[in-house]
Amino acid sequence: MKKHTTLFLFIALAMVGISACNPSDEQSSNGDSSAVLTVSPADFEAKVDGDSVKLYTLTNGTAAAAITNYGARVVSLHVPDKNGNLVDVVLGYTDLASYRQPGEGFYGAVVGRYGNRIAKGQFELEGQQYQLELNDGPNTLHGGTNGFFAKVWEVKHVTDSSVEFQYVSPDGDAGYPGKLEATVVYTLTADNGLDIAYRATTDKATVINLTNHAYFNLSGEGDTTILDHLLTIRADGYTPVDETLIPTGVITPVDNTPFDFRQPTPIGARIDTADTQLVLGKGYDHNFALKKEPGLQLVATVESPKTGIVMDILTEEPGLQFYSGNFMNKVQNAKGGKIYGYRSAFCLETQHFPDSPNQPDFPSTVLEPKSEYRTRTVYQFR
């Protein structure tokens, strides 16, 4: 009977990609509507600056993802828990209008051109100084006030399990040099992985650092905490920050610090200790220097003790930003009529290091003409 119920849930999820659904009409095997998609495609269909926005549903037979071309955002991601029930592990809003509100938090978006922070919004490249838009106190965060997270991406190709988006950023966009053609492909793999592949080219030397800003709670979006989640990060060092959360330029060993997640550790075990770095970040909001070789490798694992859902993160990137939801506070218009509270989600953003354009000892983020930016990250569920 459970196999038939699971198949029914999958069909119901797949049909969301065809027509708008009424969340109140959907039921799971135990009558819990949290196990089905709680957003309607109709609430994401609109014109933004003349471009069409839609919601796309990816399915693989056991899991489903809803993704919009506004900001190339992951709106929901349903994966099976230890009992085979589908759980939405990604936080998000109920409609497009909520994603467009000021200060929405980059929920599920591809951020760029440069994910994370650049000090004072300034950098020098090939002898020329560039000034970016400031949107995080004295710094630039995630591409500026109108970064990739707020753009309508062109839909290039769609299948049952994948979607390809492209955005062309003109020379001077938000202060960045060069015309940049960026592509992201989301694929829901047969073994329940969300595979995110990025590519980009430029006609002028520029800097680039693309990542996805999904907020996760493996106990289900709307659960009140992530402090009980067990986290493992394969990193021997991290990059300490100043009072504006800009890296100081050094890589500090995690030994004997609250940043040592080399063994599975509850996120909340040391988060409120009187560590200077935790005080500055109001919790974890730091880049980890990953211990890995070139290529796609396992770098982090998270597990919910409530659902038994385990998420492995594999990436080609050298860094991982761990954010523990320290600035979340009664987030409104969430899916299913929920309100997201303090530390009710975490982000694990694969990336090059913050402020790399101003840090010569960090891995370079410069992209030259005739070269191709290419990187890949997989969020794998089991």
From TrEMBL:
It catalyses: alpha-D-glucose = beta-D-glucose. Residues 1-20 form the signal peptide. One of its GO terms (cellular component) is cytoplasm. Monomer. This is Aldose 1-epimerase. Pathway: Carbohydrate metabolism; hexose metabolism. Gene3D superfamilies: 2.70.98.10. It comes from the Bacteria. It is an enzyme of class 5 (isomerase). Its EC number is 5.1.3.3. PANTHER family: ALDOSE-1-EPIMERASE (PTHR10091), GALACTOSE MUTAROTASE (PTHR10091:SF0). Its cofactor is Ca(2+). GO terms for biological process: galactose catabolic process via UDP-galactose, Leloir pathway; glucose metabolic process. Keywords: Calcium, Carbohydrate metabolism, Cytoplasm, Isomerase, Phosphoprotein, Signal. It comes from Parapedobacter koreensis. Pfam families: Aldose_epim. GO terms for molecular function: aldose 1-epimerase activity; carbohydrate binding. Beta-D-galactose binds at residues 116-117, 213-215, 285. Belongs to the aldose epimerase family.
